[in-house]
Amino acid sequence: MSELTGSLMEELIAREDVQEELAKVEKAAERVEEARREAAKLEMEMAEVEARQEAARQAERETVATSAVADAAADVLSAAATVRRAEEEMAELRRQLDGKGAGASGGGGQKWVTEGVDEDEQRIESAKAAAIAGAAGGLVALPAYAFGAGGLGPALLLGVGSDALTAALFGLTYRYALRRDVNNSMLQSGVVAAFALARASGALSVSLADGTGASGALSGTLEGLLVLFVAQRALDRAIGAGFVKPFPS
């Protein structure tokens, strides 16, 4: 039976029309395999193109973020210089007023209302306030930038550094503005609000630059408020614990 089956198969295969059909099937199989190889090659090329495009988009986003952070850092430094000049002008005005008062009374004037103020000690206290506020602001900003930047990189370092610098400047201004009126909630809120408005303006300019729109501006503003709130709380605790002394009158 098997011999008969084998003989029939040989005869069938030997037929010219069957051989033609088998040749067609073989060619069709080759074409299918070639199409699969071409499809795989095309898929790899598309993946490479997409990867290059994504890398270009990421580089562009980092460039925009780096530029925006650099601009923000420059604004913060400019604001710090402005605050310093204002402090110097106020001190000079106080000396002039005290001098006039002393001339009228025949006595010597003094720079501070509070007697026995050590200016070197006040510089140290201001440095401590800036360090505490800056560290608190930088730490609270770190997770947001690490998540958004996808790890360590220039965008992360510049972003956290900018927020830490803003918080440090806030700490200096906060201590100077409150002086010994450390429980004045309206004054506390006013200082935070002033810095928050400046941060909101910066967030809006960044969102317009990178195309994120209102959502980006809102996110940046909320992040800035959180940084300032944490910096304020840290500084309030430091002043309350006596680690940082209030600014004298």
From TrEMBL:
Residue ranges, annotated region (Disordered): 92-113
Residues passing through the membrane, by range: 129-148, 154-174
Keywords, alphabetical: Membrane, Transmembrane, Transmembrane helix
Record's keyword annotation contains Membrane: yes
Gly residues: bias regions: 100-110
Official protein name in the record: Uncharacterized protein
Species this chain originates from: Pycnococcus provasolii
